[in-house]
Specification:
The structure is a single chain. This protein is mainly alpha-helical. The chain has two domains: about 5-200, Fumarase/aspartase (N-terminal domain) (Fumarase C, Chain B, domain 1, Orthogonal Bundle); about 205-315 and about 345-515, Fumarase/aspartase (Central domain) (Fumarase C, Chain A, domain 2), CATH 1.20.200.10. Helix content is about 55%, strand content about 5%. The chain has helices spanning about 15-25, 30-50, 75-85, 95-110, 120-130, 150-160, 175-180, 195-200, 200-230, 240-245, 250-265, 285, 290-310, 335-360, 385-400, 425-460, 465-480, 490-500, 505-515; strands spanning about 5-10, 25-30, 90-95, 135, 140, 165, 170-175, 320, 325. A three-stranded antiparallel β-sheet has the order 4-6-7. A two-stranded parallel ribbon has the order 1-2. Strand 8 and strand 9 form a beta hairpin. Helix 11 packs across helix 13. The longest helix is centred in the last third of the chain and has 36 residues, at about 425-460. The two termini are about 25 Å apart. InterPro entries: Aromatic_Lyase, Fumarase/histidase_N, HutH, L-Aspartase-like, Phe/His_NH3-lyase_AS.
């Protein structure tokens, strides 16, 4: 459990704080300034509530039903009914870390003082997060416009003491039971408060921030496995020279090339490409590795910039601003939907080039002296033949997941909400894409490590992998990724390789020799 404390003020928070709360269970507190700002905006809402003039979200219905004026005697029921009716998701449950991220981000918006909720509502949400209570949120229901309505409604339902939730140990129970166990009183919502809990881009943004953290680590992992494959194929590192990459000044490309150079430093295998089978250049999947991983890096940088802007936003409709309440369209998820889709496209291509390198390691006609499929006794043994099939299947899935969700729109709410972002769907498929990418990189690691072992056994006289490669292979073996030998049950090796990649073990093993990689 992350022991840090995250204090929310009126000016937003950092991506690191979101990850710390979502994954590490960091404690959340509201600053005195945030509480004061919420109190001021609440007084504005209460003044409007007392007025005979209808105000959207305060004294009217919602969406296409906004034409009806709701009297004071029905407004508590109105807000409660809004949450209940909008908690209409279906399907598998959303991962706890995503739910915690979207709750924290919604709380962050409440803390800006632009939503008009009472401080009590925000304080209760903070207590729920700190207690480790996570609402059960079904996957399907959000269109990414008017915010992530259904997912946020399921979270708001927990604040009311309704619906199902999960405790810190992963046990499901009625929300009322979990609140009572922690001494948390359910909230009775007043004017605008139900709407303020639902009308945000927090699910999309939370997914994006978690994805950015994961993809950053996977891109560096791909730089490392690309270097290992280049080494195992006796390729040249001359294409990684900084002066070559300066000719095309994409910052991500230069960073990936630098990572590969550092992993290959001191290798006795690099440069032997001319010894037995002369070749002027390595294949694209090897030679262009920095260009593809670098494009991923630059795409990720753009996504992080979009996320940073959204983190600085106060997304609600209507909003309390300068003593008045104004309707707006800031809840539209287009900015987030686009980059969520963009990252899925980038991830698919990064996986595609990694799979091509793996196939080259296994193909006797292109591996420059390695045995077919890296098998011990080819024909009797199949080696890593089907591991590459698995990798190819994953790449196929990644290509399907790269089809953009954000180009779609289905009108809802009797044509009042006639254009939606589908950003939530983009985020859901990006999570699956990053899972697949981690597995693809794990297969390349498995193959490259075995190929390096075989090079030591039968490669150029006196040549051996560089210090970084040796450290990586040793760490992988310690993590349960087996070495060369006769055919065996491979799934455990691949599972261990995935854990090694996903958990950061691969990058850590490289950095123990190279120092910090980008």
């Amino acid at each position: 459990m992350d022991m840090r404390k995250v204090v929310l003020g009126t000016s937003g928070t950092s991506p690191e704080d979101v990850v710390a709360v979502a994954r590490g269970g960091a404690r959340v507190e509201l600053s005195p300034g945030a509480l004061a700002a919420m109190d001021r905006s609440r007084r504005v809402v209460e003044g409007l509530a007392a007025s005979p003039e209808p105000v959207y979200g305060v004294s009217t219905g919602f969406g296409a039903l906004a034409v009806r004026h709701i009297g004071p005697e029905l407004r508590t029921r109105l807000q409660r009914n809004l949450v209940r009716s909008h908690a209409a998701g279906v399907g598998p449950r959303v991962e706890a870390e995503v739910v915690r991220a979207l709750m924290f981000l919604r709380l962050r918006t409440l803390a800006t003082g632009h939503t008009g909720v009472r401080p009590l509502v925000a304080e209760t949400m903070a207590r729920v997060l700190n207690a480790g209570i996570t609402p059960v949120v079904p996957e399907h229901g959000s269109l990414g416009c008017s915010g992530d309505l259904a997912p946020l409604a399921h979270c708001a339902l927990t604040l009311l003491g309704e619906g199902e939730a999960q405790d810190r140990d992963g046990r499901d129970a009625p929300a009322a039971e979990l609140l009572a166990a922690h001494g948390i009183a359910p909230v009775e919502l007043r004017e605008k408060e139900g709407l303020a809990l639902l009308n945000g881009t927090d699910g999309m943004l939370g997914t994006l921030l978690l994805a950015c953290a994961d993809l950053g680590r996977l891109i560096t992992s791909a730089d490392v496995t690309a270097a290992l494959t280049l080494e195992a194929l006796l390729g040249t590192d001359r294409v990684l020279a900084p002066e070559l990459h300066a000719l095309r000044p994409h910052p991500g490309q230069a960073a990936s090339a630098a990572n590969m150079r550092r992993v290959l430093a001191g290798s006795g295998l690099v440069g032997h490409h001319q010894d037995a089978a002369p070749r002027v250049q390595d294949a694209y999947s090897v030679r262009c590795a920095p260009q593809v991983a670098g494009a991923n890096r630059d795409t990720l940088a753009h996504a992080r910039a979009v996320a940073a802007r959204e983190l600085a936003a106060a997304v609600d409709n209507p909003v309390v601003i300068e003593g008045r309440v104004e309707s707006n369209g800031n809840f539209h998820g287009a900015p987030l939907g686009y980059v969520l889709d963009f990252l899925a496209i980038a991830a698919a291509d990064l996986a595609s080039i990694a799979e091509r390198r793996t196939d080259r390691l296994l193909d006797r006609a292109r591996s420059h002296g390695l045995p077919p499929f890296l098998a011990e006794d080819a024909g009797v043994d199949s080696g890593l033949m089907i591991a590459q099939y698995t990798q190819a299947a994953l790449v196929g899935e990644l290509k399907r997941l790269a089809v953009p969700a954000s180009v779609d729109s289905i009108p809802t709410s009797a044509m009042q909400e006639d254009h939606v972002s589908m950003g939530w769907a983009a985020g859901r498929k990006l999570r699956r894409a990053l899972d697949a990418l981690a597995r693809v990189i794990a297969v390349e690691l498995f193959a490259a490590a075995r190929a390096l072992d075989l090079r030591v056994a039968s490669g150029p006289a006196g040549a051996r992998p560089g210090p970084a490669a040796r450290a990586i292979v040793a760490a992988a073996r310690e993590a349960g990724v087996g070495g060369a030998g006769a055919d065996r049950f491979l799934a455990p090796d691949l599972a261990a390789a995935e854990v090694f990649v996903r958990g950061g073990g691969l990058v850590a093993a490289a950095e123990a020799v190279t120092g910090p990689l980008d």
